[in-house]
Amino acid sequence: MTYTKGVGGQTPEAALAALSNMTEGVEPIGQPEYQARISRAQALMAQQGLDAVYLNAGTNLFYFTGTRWWPSERLVGVLLPKTGQPVYLGPAFEENTLNQYRVVAGDFQGWQEHESPYALAAGILAQWGARTVGIDESSPFFISNGLAKAAPGLQWVSADAVTAGCRMHKSPAEIALMQRAKDMTMAVHRAAASMLRPGISTLEVAEFIDAAHKRVGAAGSSFCIVLFGVASSFPHGVKHAQTLKENDWVLIDTGCVLHGYNSDITRSYAFGDITDRQRQAFAAEKAAQAAAFEAAQLGRPCGAADDAARRVLAEHGFSPDYALPGLPHRTGHGCGLDIHEWPYLVKGNDQPLAAGMVFSNEPMLVLPGEFGVRLEDHFYMTDNGPRWFTEPSESIDNPLNL
């Protein structure tokens, strides 16, 4: 059996020992940027004719105010007026805890357990004279329904023109955080590949990857998909663990979070001898990924990248559209505080590509009953076009660019 470059040969202990903390000098998003996001949101609200926006606990609340609070059955959020400071809403007993997390200043209005948070919000909106209110598109139905019933005279619309309008354009500070997170995960990929051996299980590899992410400074893996052999033809995996055998195909998709920002990288390679079929598929996948990147030019629609990837796969003899063997899902997704967020590289998406947008590029090639090849790297749009965060795999013989 011939080993692919960088695959196998190391013990887990040695592979871990070769890693070190990569977070030195990294700073989280600061208060001035959060304040700038509020100002940007209010400018978009003026353009959209919105008098106020409700931001629910979760990613949007964190993005605009720095308040990390997970959604639950109790309403926690912010009412943002078209001018002025936001008003924080939450259970009265949580005020002191919420105050520890929020970065952007604003009044707090609490509700007791027997009271209606929706009536509280409606009263504030009435004081503001609001007529049209945007509601966080990620809000659970019980919250959006509760608000609408408490203030039936208001026009309630999705706030995504504001939330997505801000979040899809990353700042230099956001780009820098994602760059470091992706560098960390790429180092973990190389370490994981180096410690593969016959008989190791997918669970053992996932445990190693989690430890490796901790070694480079993350809290651990934010997710991890490890697939061997035929299981690699299932885009998001199978329910059972597998054991690595000689000449198996390997697919590992993993990432971490750094100050809220995600990495998400996939590598596919052979553990042993490489077949002609694998070489053909890898070459097609690499060409499709490159075509999507080249198609991602400023002003062009997001869907152009997906079109380009599918066209190349068809030229290599694989099925068109979503048919198999071929590409069964979109070519890419936005990435930031959420690992999947706007915009998307998908057929028919007319959203123009613009500076600051971040995308995965992963036109996975699935060969049912055989294997799957997913080469996933991310790029961001600059004033001069697309730029990779991580360099794509050089070749099937050197998939980790060693």
Describe the structure.
With 402 residues, the protein is of the alpha+beta class. It folds into two domains: 230 residues, Creatinase/methionine aminopeptidase superfamily (Creatine Amidinohydrolase, Alpha-Beta Complex), CATH 3.90.230.10; 120 residues, Creatinase/prolidase N-terminal domain (Creatine Amidinohydrolase, Chain A, domain 1), CATH 3.40.350.10. Helices cover 34% and strands 20% of the residues. It has a six-stranded mixed beta sheet with strand order 4-3-2-1-5-6, sandwiched between helices. A three-stranded antiparallel beta sheet has the order 7-8-11. A hairpin with a 2-residue loop joins strand 9 and strand 10. Helix 10 runs antiparallel to helix 11. The two termini are 20 Å apart. The mean pLDDT is 98.
> Structural class, judged by helices and strands?
alpha+beta
Tally of distinct domains: 2
The average pLDDT is 98
- List unreliable stretches of 5+ residues: none
Helical percentage: 25-40%
Query: Any idea what the CATH architecture of the largest domain is?
Result: Alpha-Beta Complex
- The first-to-last residue Cα distance is 20 Å
Spatial arrangement of strands, main beta sheet? 4-3-2-1-5-6
Pfam family, one: Creatinase_N
InterPro entries: Creatin/AminoP/Spt16_N, Creatinase/aminopeptidase-like, Creatinase_N, Pept_M24, Peptidase_M24B
Domain Peptidase M24: 177-383
Organism: Simiduia agarivorans (strain DSM 21679 / JCM 13881 / BCRC 17597 / SA1)
